[in-house]
Amino acid sequence: PSNVAEPYRIKMVEPLVMHSREDRADAIAKAGYNTFLLPSKMCYIDLLTDSGTSAMSDKQWSMMMLGDEAYAGSESFDRLLKSVQDNYGFPYVCPTHQGRGAEHIISRILITPGQYVPGNMYFTTTRYHQEAVGGIFVDVIIDEAHDSTADHPFKGNIDLAKLEKLVAEHGADQIAYVNQAVTVNMAGGQPVSMANIREVHEFCTKHGIIHWSDATRLAENAYFIQQRESGYADKSTADIAKEMMSYFDGLTMSGKKDCLVNIGGFLAMRDEEILIKAREWVVVFEGMPSYGGMAGRDMDAMAVGLEEALDDHYLEHRIGQVRYLGERLLEAGVPIVTPIGGHAVFLDAKRFLPHIPQTQFPAQALAAALFVESGVRAMERGIISAGRNKAGEHNMPKLEMVRLTIPRRVYTDRHMDVVADAVIALYAKRDEILGLEFVYEPPSLRFFTSRFTPI
Ligand code: F0G
Predict the structure, then answer these.
(1) Where, per the database record, does this protein carry N6-(pyridoxal phosphate)lysine (predicted)?
(2) Cα dihedral sign for 93, 98, 104, 110?
(3) Distance 189 CA to ligand 1 centre (A)
């Protein structure tokens, strides 16, 4: 594998700390075998998430100094609004403290209890907020997405037949809205094609259904369209992203990913009525409609970051770095989700640890073992993340994965070699890894805080 060099140079550094294997074993036991509960300074290379972990540019830091911290009418909001208008093409923006703040508000606005909310696979916080207001989430992603080795260039696509069936069964008025994520995190960072976005848009227009996007990783999705979809090779990712967004009625954004900032999010939309309702809710839960839980300086950093993320050279290295790590693992025979996605390499824990049944949480166990082996922190994305159904039983997702999530502009390709070597070494002694059982399980979003012990 090879990759283009980092298209930036390093202006400020944060030292990494390495601990002994003994100290790491001690730390993971204290953390209840949950990598979310580890102190960050125990982690040598932290691949827990790509969320809020980006390095900001010199331009973003300089804009932080110009942040307008006025309670109302902040100029920073005006700059964020203009950047969203210019780059994504939506006229209206309502800031929130992060993505789930936007999901909370749009769920309250668009969902009447008992209505269905189709989406291309679930995301944890998204589905939580849809269900919390009485919506019924329905997965309408193509079948290939649930198969860790199925080869498809746009494994995040919505299956139109599944969507049509749902609408035929219940009627368009029972559909709150269609939520289409670009890319699909839980499928392995898999992209959606422009053709699919267009088809879903046409279908929704025909039936009078609102078509919304979880646009959290839209820049990475735009890069895959440029590389894989015919007719887009000569277009810039900035133009592709704008075309993608032109088909949606609105979006929720977790700015902590493709806006290259440490905190923040927003809703953007075309319909003024939705804007007005969003402003009614945002004052209750987030803050004034001109800051929505963000500091002025954070809005300024975001206004710059969302444009920087749509730079072709940046994206070529970004996606290339993730692919570099994935290809090194594939060469060594380590089971990962393929095709390699945009923000992370996903280890397939079912194939990595075939001796551990899913009810003994193989992905959770693998993430814990990888930390002890190497100090690399990863995240479970399997049965623990999927939670329980109304009857109190585990949801049993087909995908049982450990996510090696790459922060943006933070680690070098040399760090990726360290990670690859560690995973390969662990794979050689995979038989030694034991399953886990719960010691503490919280009622919702259990992956964040639950605790385990080996069995
Ligand atoms: N949508 C997607 C696709 C996400 O990946 C996330 C967050 C959110 C919404 C929620 O945004 O965190 O700003 O409230 N994903 C993080 C992750 C937490 O690690 O995958 P948020």
Answers:
(1) 257
(2) positive
(3) 12
| Ligand 1 geometric centre to CA of 99 (Å) | 6
Name the pTM for this structure. Answer: 0.96
Tell me the pLDDT tens digit for each residue of 112-148. Answer: 999 999 999 999 999 999 999 999 999 999 999 999 9
Angstrom distance (rounded) from CA 282 to CA 140: 30
CB 204 within 8 A of CB 210: yes
With a 6 Å cutoff on the Cβ, whether 286 touches ligand 1 is: no
> 205 is written with which tokens?
């227009």
- DSSP state letters, 260-293: --SS-EEEEES-HHHHHHHHHHHHHHT--TTTTT
Nearest CA to ligand 1 atom 16: 51
Is the CB of 254 inside a 6 Å radius of any atom of ligand 1? yes
Q: Are the C-beta atoms of residues 18 and 418 closer than 8 Å to each other? A: no
CA nearest 250: which of 194, 332, 192, 177? 177
First to last CA, the chain: 38
Continuous segment of H or E residues that includes residue 345: strand 344-348
